[in-house]
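User: quick one, sequence for these tokens?
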């Protein structure tokens, strides 16, 4: 059993299989599982959007709450383990989770029929629209500021030492901005369906 859970791929597959089994059991017990209906596809898209968002924001917060504050405490001879192994892997999942989150969010808004209304902040879609715009700014920061600068800071792209240090500062600042934006973004995303804010 321990060997099974040492494989991330097997663990994820097991999670999906467990979900399917639970849905089948729920349907067999008379639960309402409308597989294949439009409402179910909307829910499935929302679930995928949230799942991608959890990975994205989770990694953003990992960088800002754990990795960045811990780096000064790590002895110099051990720092390459983070900068050459952990950070590049985390940044891979970070940027692609951001991409998945925004694409799935756009698809979800389209399927719900409110994409234009949300992006133009029309009532009653102002909350989700604000959340979407904050998320879009964060996504742009990931792909056009954080990742290009992290490639220089981590030595994936070779640059002079001064440029490497400047790139690290730019990436760090954009990451902190995204951390700040994530707080209202999450609020407005959740507020749309839970009445956390009202625009009349």
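Assistant:
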């Amino acid at each position: 059993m321990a060997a099974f859970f040492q494989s991330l791929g097997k663990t994820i597959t097991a999670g999906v299989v467990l979900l399917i089994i639970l849905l089948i059991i729920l349907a067999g017990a008379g639960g309402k599982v409308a597989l294949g209906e439009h409402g179910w596809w909307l829910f499935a898209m929302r679930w995928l959007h949230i799942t991608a968002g959890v990975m994205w924001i989770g990694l953003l917060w990992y960088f800002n709450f754990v990795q960045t504050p811990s780096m000064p405490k790590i002895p110099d001879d051990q720092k390459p383990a983070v900068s050459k192994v952990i950070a590049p892997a985390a940044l891979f999942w970070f940027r692609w989770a951001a991409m998945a989150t925004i694409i799935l969010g756009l698809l979800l808004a389209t399927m719900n029929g409110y994409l234009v209304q949300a992006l133009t902040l029309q009532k009653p879609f102002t909350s989700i629209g604000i959340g979407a715009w904050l998320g879009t700014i964060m996504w742009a920061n990931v792909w056009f500021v954080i990742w290009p600068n992290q490639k220089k800071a981590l030595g994936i792209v070779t640059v002079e030492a001064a440029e490497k240090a400047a790139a690290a500062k730019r990436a760090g600042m954009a990451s902190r901005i995204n951390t700040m934006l994530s707080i209202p973004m999450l609020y407005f995303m959740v507020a749309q369906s839970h009445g956390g804010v009202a625009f009349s």
